[in-house]
Design brief:
Layout: E1 10-14, H1 24-36, E2 41-43, H2 51-64, E3 69-75, H3 77-89, E4 93-96, H4 102-105, E5 111-114, E6 121-124, H5 126-134, E7 146-151, H6 159-165, E8 171-174, H7 188-194
Parallel strand pairs: 1-2, 1-3, 3-4, 4-7, 7-8
Antiparallel strand pairs: 5-6
Amino acid sequence: MPPRLLKNPAVLYLHGFNSSPQSQKLVELGGLLPELNPDVELVTPLLGFDPKQAYRRACEAYEAVSGRCAGVVGSSLGGYYATALSQRFGLKAVLINPAVYPYELLRSHLGPQHNPYTGERYVLTERHMADLRALDPGPLKHPKQLLLLLQSGDETLDFRQAIRRYPDSPAWIQPGGDHRFQRFDRVVPAMLEFLGVSCHTRTIG
């Protein structure tokens, strides 16, 4: 059977560590959607730094649009939350340079932190690492529901970790690039197609 087409579909986007809905990729995606499909609602909750709070906010944002949610997109730490959400609710998810084991990665950032987007200052602690670990969904039930978008030049995360974590998931691996994901605009149509969202043909230079 062909996939069910949603009327006024919603796409949930989860930002990364020390980021916000004003991040560059999100601003870029928000600018592209009116051209590709003006009916799509981009849902962008401010997650905050606390893992329990971030996951709760992500779940609440999903539940508010659950009847028409095409799927979730997560970047970096947001990719980790998106994986957890996908496994809990059976959602399709697109993971952009995802943090695979953030409870290990972020140990080097323990202590005072500053979010340059929101101005928030806080202290990252071992308790936050434990809370992150508790969100790990373990073995993936539906790996084909997850699409990896990776760039090998990511200076923050080793892209090979994601390949090992998601061996049975479709992946788009680009050489070079960086953690921000250079030329993000090129992959947006394929990202929407994976989520089952129709979009107008767009020629990208």
